Amino acid sequence: MNTHIPIASVKQAIVVEAPIERAFKVFTEDFGSFKPREHNLLSVPIAETVFETRVGGHIYDRGVDGSECRWARVLAFEPPHRVLLSWDISPRWQVETDPDKTSEWEVRFIAETERRTRVELEHRHLDRHGQGWESERDGVAGDHGWPLYLQRYAELLRQA
Amino acid sequence: MTNTNAQLAALGDPTRRQIFELIGERPRSVAEITREVTVSQSAVSQHLKVLRETRLVRAEPKGASNIYHIDPAGLGQMRAWLDRFWSKTLAAYKVAVEQPPEEQQ
């Protein structure tokens, strides 16, 4: 059976004018410099975002008050070709501690020429965020989480 | 606004997810879905009701029965958010990676 339904994944690609090694290095080591600033689960502004470049590491945001939010786990780290990470953010816009309820995102780097790299991103298994959700549903306030965040995001886009 | 939480909750049930995936492959009628799963047609109808109420699928009348399709405005909302998030991230990444190294701090 086809279990990989298109609606439960997001695929994107971009071509950058940089050698594959640099494309990989900037994506991982400098991730915090280009990640959208409004992507923040902390209650305070982010001082820095750290991408720990090894399997078992995390991506975490550190707030200006020292608080931390670990929202992705590094599942594969294969320079300069591929990284695989989890997405540990629940539809309630909180850190998800149950790995079975997290989706994953993979980034692949493909050298087109010596100075040009194609970067493919796939965020998949979005449906996993729903497993076992019924028992928690009563505790979910209707106007928080994704709907609220979607609204905030839409407002930001309008301002842009 | 569609409640994404309810949509994800609806997909928490394995049979319902299987039905959703079957409809994702191609539009199908209740009878066609029932042939593919181990539960009764009335159970399938109940699952379809939940999927319809959470706007994951929609029904289109065809003759005496309904044909079920994926509702593009349903789970699509969470997907759409991530789509925008990643396109914004990749666009900013392209700017960062194409900067000459000597111009970086």
Question: What would you say this structure looks like, in words?
Answer:
- The complex is a heterodimer of chains A (160) and B (105).
- Helix content of chain A is 18%, strand content 35%.
- With 160 residues, chain A is an alpha+beta fold.
- The longest helix of chain A is centred in the last third of the chain and has 14 residues, at 146-159.
- Chain A is globular and about 45 Å long.
- Residues 1-5 and 131-158 of chain A have low confidence and may be disordered.
- Chain B is of the alpha+beta class.
- Chain B is built from 5 helices and 3 strands, in the order ααβααββα.
- The longest helix of chain B is centred in the last third of the chain and has 23 residues, at 76-98.
- Chain B starts with a helix and ends in a 7-residue tail after the last helix.
- At the A-B interface, β1, α1, β7 and α3 of A face α1, α2 and α5 of B.
**β-strand number of chain A:** 7
| Biggest contact | A-B, 48 and 43 residues
Number of helices of chain A: 3
- Beta-strand content of chain A: 35-45%
In percent terms, what proportion of residues of chain B is strand?
5-15%
Quaternary organisation:
heterodimer
The profile of the biggest β sheet of chain B is:
3 strands, antiparallel
Order of helices and strands of chain A: EHHEEEEEEH
Mean pLDDT of chain A: 79
**So how many helices of chain B?**
5
Largest sheet of chain A: 7 strands, antiparallel
Shape of chain B: elongated
Tally of DSSP β-strands of chain B? 3
Helix-and-strand structural type of chain B: alpha+beta
| CA-atom Rg of chain B in angstroms | 20 Å
Please tell me the overall pLDDT of chain B. Answer: 81
Helix content range of chain B? 55-70%
What structural category arises from helix and sheet content of chain A?
alpha+beta
| Low-pLDDT ranges of chain A | 1-5, 131-158
Distance linking N and C termini of chain B: 43 Å
Q: Tell me the strand order in the biggest sheet of chain A.
A: 1-7-6-5-4-3-2
